[in-house]
TrEMBL record:
Protein name, as recorded: Uu.00g022480.m01.CDS01
Subcellular location: Nucleus
Active site: 156 (nucleophile), 408 (proton donor/acceptor)
Residues carrying the site annotation Interaction with DNA: 432
Any GO BP annotation: DNA repair
Main location as per UniProt: nucleus
PANTHER family named among the record's database cross-references: TYROSYL-DNA PHOSPHODIESTERASE 1
Keywords for the protein's UniProt record, in alphabetical order: DNA damage, DNA repair, Exonuclease, Hydrolase, Nuclease, Nucleus
Matches recorded under InterPro entries: Tdp1
Highest taxon of source: Eukaryota
Stretches with biased composition (Low complexity): 22-32
Length: 532
């Protein structure tokens, strides 16, 4: 996928590094003229420069961090500030309409047709009342209530679809609520499609493999099926689906992994869009993985109550994540780590305890205490500078620059034993049955409660080259040639890692942050937390 022009622009730091590398490879001036008889001409083998591709995921800008920690980061203004935006469909859990509108171009913001899709169906819900009040003051804002068939489900997807005056469209999938807090000092992530042109009137319909996961055509099918699901009871997204059908998605490189609430059959038809853990399993099953040991790092901002045993975690979610296209009859199972902050990390975050209001799990009940017991061995810190954390010895430290930016981002990344990455998922989905779906019931159905959406990427998909490798990048989106020791012609794709490495395992007495608990130890601002 060729990223948009803005995305490909190097920061001053990256450009400077490239210039420095270039100048250091030049010969001294004294050797620029021949000082001996010319040698006979020989045929030299041309060594190709390694292709270096930027990360398909970007971090959001954090206001209170220095510029060097925001290299390559993207702000909401970057995403929405173009005056050519004609229409914006904004899908999210929490919304501040005034905040959203303020990030469009000031000369055109009152002309942009804004559609806000939310999940607040109770008339007395304060969130619903606030939305109606804000939208009522603007003629260009329309509210749409998503179909919410499950009592404990949420409309948790985070996506923007932009239709532009230049007849292009763009899909933006991210992890931030549409509120100021999430776009200020919280760590979040963004995936942007290229700008998609409209299909040409005379464009034929060539033979296309609609089952090929990761292709732009398959992405379009899955996205339109996702949007069609909103129309179960009323025509929420009908006009959007009709509009997007006119656009060419060929430039998209990514697999859509989404959840739609309801009961879904366990279907083996590869042409159908699957939801929740079924869709996740189908997607990662299409990805080639390396031989040898591997680990999957699940980094989230919320962990629901899963039960007193690890049955669902291991046999449903982890089993889906472990799938691969490996030809081995019994491929090596990956190990798992879960990244989630402790109270100490929340206290030291930029917003102190206030950031903890967006990060959730519970350990108070007997069942939750049992859950903590089986999850503790795989719990790891978000910030790897924790006094009580346990880090492996001898590992090279890699600073992501986000230790103090509390995590609202959600990433699922499979690492190989040589530090390269097999695949990466950026999503709104945390660890919960509501998000990914229950285990299959006796009727062969999977029950999902919430709306979620994310994008899965892998190196071969982004380069059309089976030799390609993906490596983590830190404080930059661009990898460097030395990040991989293999052949010089092997393409290298960066993946912006939000957490520093190596990960620190929880100390024996450490527990995760619990927003409903009380904390009397002051945060760095001097505040305390009374619990929710």
């Amino acid at each position: 996928m060729e990223p948009p022009a803005k995305r490909r622009r190097l920061s001053d730091g990256d450009a400077g590094r490239d210039r420095k590398a270039s100048s250091s490879s030049r010969a001294p001036a004294s050797l620029s003229h021949p000082i001996s008889p010319p040698r006979k001409k020989t045929v030299e083998k041309t060594v190709k420069e390694r292709r270096l591709l930027p990360s398909p995921f970007r971090l959001t800008t954090i206001t209170d961090l220095p510029p060097e920690s925001n290299v390559g980061a993207v702000s909401l203004k970057d995403l929405l500030g173009d005056p050519l935006i004609a229409e914006c469909w904004e899908f999210n859990y929490l919304h501040d309409v005034d905040f959203l509108i303020s990030h469009f171009d000031e000369d055109t913001r009152s002309l942009v047709k804004v559609h806000v899709v939310h999940g607040f169906w109770k008339r007395e819900d304060p969130n619903m009342l606030a939305l109606e009040e804000q939208a009522g003051q603007r003629k260009n804002v329309t509210l749409h209530t998503a179909f919410m068939p499950e009592m404990f489900g949420t409309h948790h997807s985070k996506m923007m679809i932009l239709l532009r005056h230049d007849d292009t469209a763009q899909i933006i999938i991210h992890t931030a609520n549409m509120i100021s807090k999430d776009w200020t000092n919280m760590t979040n992530g963004v995936w942007q499609s290229p700008r998609l042109p409209q299909l040409k009137a005379a464009q034929g319909s060539p033979e296309i493999d609609t089952t090929r996961v990761g292709s732009g055509h398959r992405f379009k099918i899955d996205l339109l099926n996702y949007l069609q699901a909103y129309n179960t009871r009323r025509d929420v997204c009908k006009s959007l689906v009709e509009n997007l059908a006119k656009y060419d998605f060929c430039a998209v490189r990514g697999a859509l992994v989404a959840s739609v609430p309801g009961k879904h059959d366990v279907d083996q038809d590869l042409e159908k869009t699957r939801w929740g853990w079924q869709g996740l399993k189908q997607a990662v099953k299409s990805v080639p993985v390396q031989d040898g040991k591997s680990e999957i790092v699940v980094q989230i901002s919320s962990i629901a109550t899963l039960g007193g045993t690890d049955a669902w975690l291991q046999r449903t979610l982890f089993d889906a994540l472990s799938a691969s296209s490996s030809s081995k009859s019994k491929p090596t199972k990956p190990s798992f780590k879960i990244v989630f902050p402790t109270p100490d990390e929340i206290r030291r975050s930029l917003d102190g305890y206030a950031s903890g209001g967006s990060i959730h799990t519970k350990i108070q009940s007997a069942a939750q205490a049992k859950q903590l017991q089986y999850m503790r061995p795989i719990f790891h810190h978000w910030a790897n500078d924790c006094e009580k954390g346990i880090a492996p010895e001898g590992a090279e430290p890699k600073d992501a620059g986000r230790q103090r930016g509390a995590p609202h981002i959600k990433t699922y990344i499979r690492y190989g034993e040589n530090s390269t990455i097999d695949w990466a998922l950026l999503t709104s989905a945390n660890i919960s049955k509501q998000a990914w779906g229950e285990a299959t019931n006796k009727a062969g159905e999977v029950r999902i409660a919430s709306w979620e959406i994310g994008v899965l990427v892998w190196p071969e998909l982004l380069t059309d080259d089976p030799r390609a490798r993906m490596v983590g990048t830190f404080k930059t989106d661009i990898p460097v040639k030395d990040d991989f020791d293999g052949e010089s012609e092997t393409p290298l794709v960066g993946l912006r890692i939000p957490y520093s490495l190596p990960l620190q395992r929880y100390g024996n007495a450490e527990v995760p942050w619990v927003a409903t608990a009380s904390y009397t130890e002051p945060d760095w601002k001097g505040g305390v937390w009374g619990g929710w």
